[in-house]
Amino acid sequence: MTEESNFVIEETTESMDSAIHHFEFELHKIKAGKASPQMLEGVKVEYYGANTPIDQMSNISTPDARQIVIQPWDRSTLHSIEKAIINANLGFTPSNTGDVIRINLPPLTEERRREMVKKAKAETEAAKVAIRNIRRNANESARKLEKDGIAEDEIKELEKDIQVLTDQYIVKADKIFDAKEKDILHV
After folding, report:
1. What is the pLDDT of residues 68-100, one digit of tens each?
2. Bridge partners (DSSP) listed for residue 95
3. Buried/exposed code over 75-113 (b: 16+ C-beta within 10 A; e: otherwise)
4. Cβ pair 98, 78 in contact under 8 A
5. Does 144 lie in the same domain as 97?
6. How many angstroms separate the first and last alpha carbons of the chain?
7. 58-64 and 50-53 as β-strands: parallel, antiparallel, unpaired?
8. Into how many domains does the chain fold?
9. pTM to 2 decimals?
């Protein structure tokens, strides 16, 4: 293989790794009934005219498996934090005690578990689409190499290697989903 072909394979591998890391990050947000500060990742609070991540303006802890406690550094932001959590539509209601905000997670019902599995499945499909888009871009790069004078046989070999990579990463996404599904459905 030429240096250009190796570069296409390396770039494709890096992009697919990145897609899998993003997929794992998104699945990490879907918790199977266990309280975790990551459940609030992505929640932004209106703070002095700027949308500030909740973890940059408060301490978030989980005293037990069913509760999240948010203690803002500035008490005047309690209402804004509470409002941001409600607007984020995460499926739970915060309660403001005047000092902290408590979120009690109800035990998951079978219906809620199935909903979470559907959400995880949707994330899996999004990851697979991202991997296939990376494959398409890599194949386009391979065709450009052909126009630049690289042998047709090598381009065919490169496209086969790209497909093998794609298949490996799709299997990896499926395995990650299967593990997450077992975690969610385990009572």
Report:
1. 899 998 888 888 888 888 888 777 788 888 889
2. 102
3. eebbebbbebbeebeeeeebeeeeebbebebeebeeeeb
4. yes
5. no
6. 51
7. unpaired
8. 2
9. 0.71
